[in-house]
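Write out the 3D structure for:
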Amino acid sequence: MTQGTSGVAGRRLPGPDELRNNGVVKNVGEARETPTGAPQEELATGERSTRNRVARSILDHGPSTVAELADRLGLTQAAVRRHLDALAGDGVVEAREQRVYGARTRGRPAKVFALTDCGRDAFDQSYDKLAADALRWIADREGGNEAIAAFARARIAAQASAYRAAVETAAPEQRTEALAKALSADGYAATARSAPHPQKGEQLCQHHCPVAHVAEQFPQLCEAETEFFAELLGTHVQRLATIAHGDGVCTTFIPKISHNASASTAGRNPA
């Protein structure tokens, strides 16, 4: 599914950063030290586990000092600093001055460590459920299915210019490949390949879909994307498989078209 942001009938719906599957907490950072004699793989796993505990403690308790983290986790302050340095290097935490409420004492405020936006995204924030709940709320209203379809098309239109530029600057026979590269730049891991015999055309394969769990409930998202691909490439296309329906890859068949037909459709706006 392509990304973009829009609303339907004045309602604020989740944007592209909210329509994704984050899953459970990720392993943040990698082991940077290996004491002599310790099995490297085992130690790396332990390092990541402790690093995750440090990040989780900050998530649960808010911005924290080194001393607070050490006390909570039963670690030495030196160990906490080492993990914080690694987390900061990975963009998961950042240091800032501690907020002081009331009268300020002498001396510099204590340094605390807080999660960055990237750090918060390493934890499950239920964005899929939020997006699905919002769309379900709209679908349950009068005209809801039409509103969902309108939202899906508006979402595609908001992102259309980047894909259109990539396709229209490519030679007609290279447009599917150009679209695949543009999709990959947005995180869809897309490829283009020749369709198997006896089909005459190409297959556009998207190996990742950040909104698959939502699209499983609302196929209008997939339908709007398919419509956009057809309009952009100037030919009828056929969706053969989708991740949302349990397939391993989103696969779209694109038949071979004449160069004249392709050129005549360039510059149109998506529906």
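The chain has two domains: 44-98+110-122, 125-255.
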